[in-house]
Specification:
With 140 residues, this protein is of the alpha/beta class. The protein contains 5 helices and 5 strands, in the order αβαββαβαβα. Helix content is 26%, strand content 24%. One of its GO terms (molecular function) is GTP binding.
Amino acid sequence: CFRALCCKGPPPPRPEYDLVCIGLSGSGKTSLLSQLCSESPENIVSTTGFSIKAVPFQNAILNVKELGGADNIRKYWSRYYQGSQGVIFVLDSASSEDDLETARNELHSALQHPQLCTLPFLILANHQDKPAARSVQEVR
């Protein structure tokens, strides 16, 4: 407040943080980022390669690299890890047992990756509104 009253200059720049968002196809990565950016939920298309979104908050900006989760794309995830300062891992808590096991394997692989193993992880169990959704205890 004081700065705005006495100094007519622009406000100080907000810090920016680079994050990577990963998870299997259909887990809700694109929907999550669209919601955080206040974009319309209509016409959301699965990411086939990668996309980058700047998610603005009052005190910071998150530059999020969302990586597609298809089988043929996951093997390239590690090429996009460099420079990341945090990880968002999205999983579909209502997915099949096979898909949940695949998601577990991908999460464990990311947790052990040299460029990610020291970074903060947010693990989001998405689709909790679906009848088949598992609890946090069941997802572990």
